[in-house]
Each structure stands twice: as structure tokens, then as C-alpha cells.
UniProtKB/TrEMBL annotation, chain A:
Signal peptide: none annotated. It comes from the Bacteria. This is Sugar ABC transporter permease. The keyword Cell inner membrane does not apply. It is found in: Cell membrane. Residues 88-301 form the ABC transmembrane type-1 domain. The chain crosses the membrane at residues 31-55, 90-113, 125-143, 175-197, 218-237, 249-271, 283-303. Belongs to the binding-protein-dependent transport system permease family. It comes from Devosia salina. It holds the Pfam family BPD_transp_1. Keywords: Cell membrane, Membrane, Transmembrane, Transmembrane helix, Transport. PROSITE patterns: ABC_TM1. It is a multi-pass membrane protein.
């Protein structure tokens, strides 16, 4: 210790005045490399988050400065806004059906593919393509056509003498066309499942086979438990994505959420409040409530995860 | 595939039994049949769109669900010039925006990632955690204040609100992706360079970046595809038709002439996804690896 101190002392003395400059030399490169990110973080993320929190308590139309209205926006949301209630219902229905279905397809196909299939890269690529293209406006346009009154689905049904409704303009079915569109894009969670399946040690299956466990049993007792971290991860990512989904509903309903608000996604409602009616204060309150929903969902998932997610250690 | 290897070497008792082998064979044939049927179902809408775009207008809806092939490119010419502003302008705008976003993301995200992965500075872990938290953040929360900011800067109806944020590393996904990759580069390399007196900039430029080509390419492709696809950003910031991107152009096409000119609409839809498809064909492996390692959403 004494040797160390003796050594350190002269060094400190030598650079005595430059203690700050030494600290600067050590830390500066880090901060400099992060400079763009800092500007972005404070200017485009943190600042706007705080600012939109403030705006959510105001009346703001972009032209005049915001007027403080207290909790009025939130009050309106929960007591006096049927469109808000409708958009919540639409969004939750969408999340509740599209996410589990998408993950079920992704997992089923991933497990089929994982059995050392011939042609795996080709299959994987074909299943992945829709999720790469799916967010595009072109696909939403295609979907409108597929489920239109004279669209592909009905032409197919006509072969069996069934006259189908116009799926996208019937409020009973319109949301389902969007759920199908979302499920169609199961490719990227499938790839994550495939990566997860590859991590499961092969010898566990060998041992299980020797003990006479059937494939079905192996799936429930080995594959699924060991895959729960990936299921958990996929479920969180896909749920958040589903909450934020916008483009397909916008294109398919011409930006209105029609018919009869049956595809009025939360984000679509928020967009219209902000940029069609210029109720920026109210839209900010909607945005903050969305943030709260996603945060609560994520926190809830993490809290419950210890009861069903299997971790190695 | 590497995963096949262990399977081949394992010959358990059951697999010597001919009945079990037969069962395995049948299962494999069934699995292939399911997979082939599923892929046809998955790709059918895309193939139908392609076929429909090459049909004369009056035949599109006559041909049923198995359209015969024809190679009439009339729709492409008609669609390209269907509106006041032609699709040449939209494609040009989209390419410019996507290109600048790629450049911005590559520079800014790699710099931030280098700092997080290699440099020592106060509060690094806190900043890193904050960066990760922005991954989860719904864009709607920052939307309105950002709009007000860009409007006050006079940037509405320019491409700046779409491009400048990329130069400020707001895409945390790519920072995270690059941090993961940089951490895998042996530390001895930069320590040796430091011994030789190289500073942080030199190490970043001469060692990290040249060794990170795969992750940079992955980030570039994803940035291109996401920017190309982006609908919300352009919808909010670009209001004049001559500034529209391809996606906005398509949307306007639907609203204006779409109901009468399906051929043109389908043709332009096909063209709008061609760039993504080309990247898919060329870099499929990198895209799939990128998703598998980071769990990115698409």
C-alpha cells in the first residue's frame, strides 16, 4: 500500500493542476462519441416526452399557445368520449387475437422447420418475406383488394357457391382482415424461435427418447419450457408492435377507421385528433395514456414472468 | 446446416427398427407437405398481385383466383404517369431520403455504440440503460412536441425532420445491434493500438469500423427498408405532392384514381416493393441473422 501511495503521489503532483484535464482526457472521448446521441436523446426524446406530458394538460391547436386545462383532457377520455372507448376496444381486440395467433403460427412452423428439414433456408426465406414486406402501403392496398366484395376471397368462395360479404366494408369482419394481415407476417418471430430452438441441447432429446418419452411429451416437457424466454421476448415485442400498428388500418379505412369505427386503431384515433382536428393537447393525453398502457403491460409481463418463464440458472 | 450434424451421429435403438424408420419417413413427407402448402398460401397474394399488374385492365377481375400469365406492361406506363406528379419524382424522393437516413444511422449509431462498448466515462451504464429504454418508447409520445419543434425550425415540407434525427442516433435498435457486435471484437486489438499511441478516433476508424462490416451492412439494409416503408413520418411532414415519397404517392393514388385504375395501382404497388425485394434477395442471410441475434421486430 505504501509503495502504491508513494508512486501515486508524485504522479498527482506532477499533473497537480491538471487533475481536471486528466479527467477530461479520460472521459472526453466517450462524451464526444456520444455527442450526436446526447443531442438526439435530450432534444428529440427526453425533451419531447416532458413537453408532451405538459401539453396533455392543455388545450393546444398549434396556432395559439397552449392553455392550461388541468385534468380536463383525461376526464374527457374516460367519461365523455365514445370514440376513445371504441378505439381502445378495437386495439385490445386486435392485440388479443393477432399476437397469440401470430406467435402460435411462428412457433408451429419453427418447430416443423427445426427437425433438420431439407430446404430449411428456402422455407425460412419464403415465410420471412411477408413480414419484411407487410408494413408497406402496397400490401395494405393488396389486402383491400383481397377482402373486397369482388375480391379474391369471395372469388374463391364463389367456387363453392358461397356469396361472401365485402369483408373490409362490413364492420363485423373488417378488423379481422387486419388481424389476418398481422398473422400473415409471422416470419420474424419465427426466425427468433428458430434461433431459440437451436440453443436447446440435442442430448436432452436423446436422453428423453432413450427413456421412451414420446415426441409430444418431449415438446411439452423439454422444448416449450426451455423456449419460454424466447416466447416471453417475442410476446412483449409483438404486443408493443401491435399496440403501435398504424399503416394498414389507415390505408384500408382511408384514414378514418371506417366502417363505423370498426378499425379505429388507437394510433389512428390519435393521429386524427392531432392532425385532422388539431387537438394537440388531447392527442398528447392519448399518447401518454398509450405510453402508460405499454409500460404497465411490460411491467406486468416482467413481474409475472418468474412464474412461467424458465431461466437456466 | 450445422444443426443437422449431431442428429446424424445419433443412432438410438429405435432408429434401427424399420417400422420406426418408416414412421419417421412418413412424418417427414407430411411435414414437407404442410410446409409447401403453407408457403403457397403465404406467397399466393404476392404472386397474384404480380400477375394482376401485368394484365390488361378489363381482365384483372375476370381471370379468377388462378390468373393466367400475360405480359402486358400497359398498366405500368399508365400508373407511372397517372397523377399530376409522376412516380419518377416519388422514387427519387424516396431514394434520397433513404440514402441520407442510411448514412446518418451508420455514422451516428456506430459512434454511440463505440462509446457504449469500449470507452470509459462517467455514467456510462446509466446512459446505456436510458438508451435501451427508448427502444420500448412509442413514437406517439414524442410526436407532437417534435412536430412543434420542426415547425418552429421551418422544417415542415422538407426532408429534414425525416433525415436529421438519424444523424442524432435516435434509432436505438441499431445502437444496440452495433454494441453487441463491437463487444465481440477482441479487446487486444484496440489495446495494442492504444499502446502504439492511437487515440479513440483512430481506433474507431481504423479498427472497429473495418472489422464491423457485417453489422454495418445489416444496419444499412434495415435502415433502407424501414425508411423506404415508412408511411407515418412522410404523412405528417410532407404535404406538397412534389415532395411525396413512393408510399405517400401510392396512398394518393388509392384516394384519387385507385377505384377506377386497379391495373395502374397494382403496377405501382409492385414497383414500390421491388427495392425491398432486391435487398431481400441479395442480403437474405444478413437480414435473418440480424433478426435472430437482436430480435428485431421485422
Amino acid at each position: 500500500m505504501t509503495v502504491h501511495a508513494a508512486e501515486a503521489a508524485p504522479q498527482d503532483a506532477a499533473s497537480g493542476t491538471s487533475k481536471w484535464s486528466r479527467a477530461w482526457q479520460n472521459h472526453a472521448p466517450g462524451y464526444l462519441f456520444l455527442l450526436p446521441w446526447f443531442i438526439g436523446f435530450f432534444g428529440l426524446t427526453l425533451g419531447p416526452i416532458i413537453s408532451s406530458f405538459y401539453l396533455s394538460f392543455t388545450d393546444f391547436d398549434l396556432l395559439t399557445s397552449p392553455d392550461w386545462v388541468g385534468l380536463a383532457n383525461y376526464q374527457r377520455m374516460f367519461t365523455n368520449d365514445r370514440s376513445f372507448a371504441q378505439s381502445m376496444q378495437v386495439t385490445f381486440t386486435f392485440v388479443l387475437f393477432s399476437v397469440p395467433l401470430k406467435l402460435a403460427f411462428a412457433l408451429a412452423i419453427a418447430i416443423l422447420l427445426n427437425r433438420g428439414m431439407k430446404g430449411l433456408p428456402l422455407y425460412r426465406a419464403m415465410f420471412y418475406l411477408p413480414s419484411l414486406l407487410g408494413a408497406s402501403v402496397a400490401i395494405a392496398i393488396l389486402w383491400r383488394q383481397i377482402f373486397a366484395g369482388d375480391g379474391l376471397v369471395n372469388q374463391f368462395l364463389a367456387n363453392f357457391g358461397i356469396i361472401g360479404p365485402s369483408w373490409i366494408s362490413n364492420p363485423k369482419f373488417s378488423l379481422w382482415t387486419l388481424i389476418i394481415l398481422s398473422v400473415w407476417q409471422f416470419g420474424s418471430p419465427m426466425i427468433i424461435f428458430l434461433a431459440g430452438l437451436r440453443q436447446i441441447p440435442q442430448d436432452m432429446y436423446e436422453a428423453a427418447s432413450l427413456d421412451g418419452a414420446s415426441k409430444w411429451r418431449q415438446f411439452w416437457k423439454i422444448t416449450l419450457p426451455l423456449l419460454t424466454p424466447v416466447v416471453f421476448f417475442n410476446a412483449i415485442i409483438q404486443t408493443i408492435e401491435a399496440f403501435k400498428s398504424f399503416t394498414p388500418a389507415f390505408i384500408i379505412s382511408n384514414g378514418t377507421g371506417s366502417p363505423i369505427n370498426s378499425t379505429l386503431f388507437y394510433t389512428l384515433y390519435l393521429y386524427n385528433e392531432a392532425f385532422s382536428y388539431f387537438r394537440m393537447g388531447y392527442a398528447s393525453a392519448l399518447a401518454w395514456f398509450l405510453l402508460l398502457l405499454i409500460a404497465c403491460f411490460t411491467a406486468f409481463s416482467f413481474l409475472t414472468s418468474k412464474y412461467w418463464v424458465h431461466y437456466d440458472d | 446446416m450445422t444443426i443437422d450434424a449431431p442428429k446424424l451421429t445419433v443412432v438410438t435403438g429405435a432408429e434401427n427398427d424399420p417400422a420406426a424408420r418408416l414412421r419417421k419417413r412418413i412424418f417427414s413427407v407430411l411435414a414437407h407437405m404442410v410446409l409447401i402448402a403453407a408457403s403457397i398460401l403465404m406467397l399466393y397474394p404476392l404472386l397474384w398481385l404480380l400477375a394482376a399488374s401485368f394484365k390488361p385492365e378489363n381482365e384483372i377481375f375476370m381471370s379468377g383466383i388462378w390468373p393466367s400469365l400475360s405480359w402486358d406492361i400497359e398498366s405500368y406506363f399508365r400508373g407511372w404517369n397517372a397523377m399530376r406528379v409522376s412516380f419518377s419524382v416519388f422514387f427519387m424522393n424516396s431514394f434520397v431520403i433513404a440514402f441520407l437516413c442510411v448514412v446518418g444511422n451508420l455514422i451516428a449509431c456506430s459512434m454511440a455504440a463505440y462509446a457504449f462498448a469500449r470507452l470509459q466515462f462517467k455514467g456510462r451504464n446509466v446512459w446505456f440503460a436510458l438508451m435501451l429504454m427508448t427502444l420500448m418508447l412509442p413514437g406517439q409520445v414524442t410526436l407532437i412536441p417534435q412536430y412543434v419543434l420542426f415547425r418552429d425550425l421551418g422544417w415542415v415540407n422538407t426532408i429534414l425532420p425525416l433525415v436529421v434525427p438519424k444523424f442524432l442516433a435516435v434509432d436505438a435498435f441499431f445502437v444496440f445491434l452495433m454494441v453487441q457486435f463491437f463487444r465481440g471484437i477482441p479487446r487486444e486489438l484496440d489495446e495494442a493500438a492504444m499502446m502504439d499511441g492511437a487515440g479513440a478516433w483512430r481506433i474507431y476508424w481504423k479498427i472497429m469500423l473495418p472489422l464491423s462490416v457485417p453489422v454495418l451492412v445489416t444496419a444499412a439494409i434495415f435502415t433502407f427498408i424501414w425508411t423506404w416503408d415508412d408511411f407515418f413520418g412522410p404523412l405528417i411532414y410532407l404535404n406538397r405532392m412534389q415532395d411525396y415519397t413512393v408510399m405517400l404517392g401510392l396512398r394518393t393514388f388509392v384516394d384519387s384514381t385507385g377505384e377506377s385504375d386497379f391495373g395502374g395501382l397494382f403496377a405501382m404497388s409492385v414497383l414500390s416493393i421491388v427495392p425491398i425485394f432486391v435487398f431481400f434477395l441479395l442480403f437474405q442471410r444478413l437480414l435473418i441473422e440480424g433478426i435472430a441475434t437482436t430480435g428485431m421486430k421485422r
